[in-house]
Amino acid sequence: MTLTGKLIERTENLPRDRKSLNVWFRHLYQTNIDVASFIDTYVYDSLNLFSAFEILNADKEMQKSVSDIFSKIKLFELLKGITLEYWLIGDVFILGVLDLQRVNWEYFVVLNPDQVEVRRYNLLNKFYYELIPDDFIKKLVLEKTPEYQYLELKQNAPEIIQAVTNGRNIPIDNAHITHLKHMPVPYGFYGQPLLKSFLTKLISEDKSVHRDLQNFLGDLCSKRIYAFKNLIEDFVNEKIINPMAETNEWKKVPVFHIPAKSSD
């Protein structure tokens, strides 16, 4: 039995907290060929769909504007990061930064899920997000060094300085963050890692177990990727394009479309 197999013979032996699980899954993806192949199947099939996206229901002006913003934010590179994080960890937190002068998106970045806290107010049925400040931000705020970076932060984001100074997490405006969750339970705050369900079989050395698992995953993969395709379409249409539509008095209609995968 491999070292990985000895350490994790049953999924019940996995760490319980989310951050430790993330460490395990990233380590397994980097060191275990079966785990890497399993995740890569989902990643590559998803990316093949995204590379064929279309811009629909748009006049020439809107089509050009949408194409320009996709190019500016490097949409396909963004989707690569989103896709790997979604299938590997089960949670993707995407932060958008606005260009206030042009009133459109400057860029998007995938946040480290280990540094994002999710809170839910059940009575309002709303989620709220906070960023856990890392050591660099703490040092910048508390020691005010380098000075030029501190002054820039003070001018552009004084709420960060206030939160860190008071020993609190940094609140994130819901209009700027999107949380994509894999197979969440109705009352859960976070998504469910894909690997957790299949880890025991993936690390098994029994070849018959692997054959049975591959046959099962072949059918399951297309269904889950189709659901992920819908999540990505909603994210691009509602979070990226709609703010532009409001600014330019466009109709709020689906514009970004990913064709379904051919059955051939």
Spatial arrangement of strands, main beta sheet: 3-2-7
Question: What is the count of helical runs?
Answer: 10
Low-confidence spans: 1-8
In whole angstroms, how far apart are the ends? 39 Å
Mean of the pLDDT scores? 82
Helix content: 40-55%
Q: Strand tally, please?
A: 8
Give the amount of beta strand, in percent: 15-25%
Q: How would you sum up the global shape? A: globular
What is the gyration radius calculated from CA atoms? 21 Å
Please, how many domains? Answer: 1
Going by helix content, strand content and strand pairing, the class is alpha+beta
Description:
With 264 residues, this protein is an alpha+beta fold. The protein has one domain. The protein has 10 helices and 8 strands. The strands form 3 sheets. A 3-stranded antiparallel sheet has the order 3-2-7. It has a 3-stranded antiparallel sheet with strand order 4-5-6. Strand 2 and strand 3 form a beta hairpin. Helix 3 packs antiparallel against helix 9 and helix 7 packs across helix 8. The longest helix is centred in the C-terminal third of the chain and has 41 residues. It is globular and about 60 Å long.
